[in-house]
Amino acid sequence: MPTQDSADLDQILRAVHALAPQIEAAIDTMESERRLPHALAQALMQAGVFRMGAPRAYGGGQLDPMAQVRVVEELSRLNGSVGWLSMIATAASFLAAFLTPPVAQRLFGHTSSVAAGQLRPPQRADLVDNGYRVSGTWRFASGCRHASVLVCGSMVHENGQPRRLANGQPETRVMLVPVSAATISDTWHTTGMRGTGSHDFSIEDAFVPFDESPNMAEPPQCPSPLYAFPALFLVSHAGVPLGIARGALDFVQELSAQKEMLPSRRLLREDSQVQETVAWAEASLGAARSYVYATLEDLWQTLCRGDRLSPRQRAHYRLMITHSHQAAKDIVSKLYDTAATSAIFRTSPLDRHMRDILTACQHRVVHLKMYRPAGRLLLGLDPEELFF
């Protein structure tokens, strides 16, 4: 008998597959305008891919981590930017679980409720009566052009000084600010992931009431194992590289059945090196994909039992996110070489896949340097990293 998650996943995947022609038709616009076309953004909202992490009580999907990754993976196969935007908005939609019901319904309870923003580095929030006054500039706000609310990581100040917690650390909080209160700067001129529109935005002295500043260190208002996941904002990250690599591999397999090599006039697929590369890519992608889903399933079952995650589980959680990106980069790079001149034109999907995965791999939380804190955890040391 299908579970609620599997039924919801099937429904969303059907909607994604139905949107494939619209996504394909919008690629040139996304690349040039560096944002989602309005009609596509609206269609994706209707499909539910931006609120998969929000509680069902507010119309969200509340999908388990594996289901979220599956949707992001499929969207990223079609287009890396679209998959990334789904991942980002879904991650931000988790915040609804930490708000009081009236506030959660107002900010996240509508089809058009889409959150974007940035947590780090935190900007300034001055403590005032009934809330905070928030100011600053935040970078890399993927999806800010179609968002309704902005997630702003902020350092709390009281009487002009950083407010400190009992452990002596500065108090940082999430502030939720309407996009209408922000000025978006056109800064996203990049190698890849162009359609994400990850521009900078600035806010000047916006008032945020206390109940629109969720505290994720406290128990969620909507209890669920989903909201006990560590580093909630990373849950569906691995779906992006898996999907991009799948899209690149599909393209090369199709190309190899059509492209002739010179001077032999043999099809590309008849070349032994191409055969070896495609086989290696399938195995490498399959291994990375299995690691992602097995790790998430292990964590999910542990949390569903009400148990705490072990340091080793946390290390594998972090490892599989970085590994999936780095493995995808290697796969797409080898496939790019295999396609030769068929990969170098802007009209080639492989050109876009290459640029997208290279850009995605520069993100701090998936960078090669993230292997170090995971290794520290596996060796019984403190990871020295916030994202654990």
What can you see in these coordinates?
The chain is of the alpha+beta class and 388 residues long. 45% of the residues lie in helices and 15% in strands. It starts with a helix and ends in a 10-residue tail after the last helix.
* Sheet with the most strands, sense and barrel status: 7 strands, mixed
Radius of gyration: 21 Å
Count of distinct structural domains: 3
- Reading the helices and strands in chain order gives HHHHHEEEEEEEHHHHH
By DSSP (H or I, 4+ residues per run), the number of helices equals 10
CATH architecture identity of the largest domain: Up-down Bundle
Outline:
This protein is of the alpha+beta class and 388 residues long. The protein contains ten helices and seven strands. Helix 1 runs antiparallel to helix 2 and helix 7 packs antiparallel against helix 8.
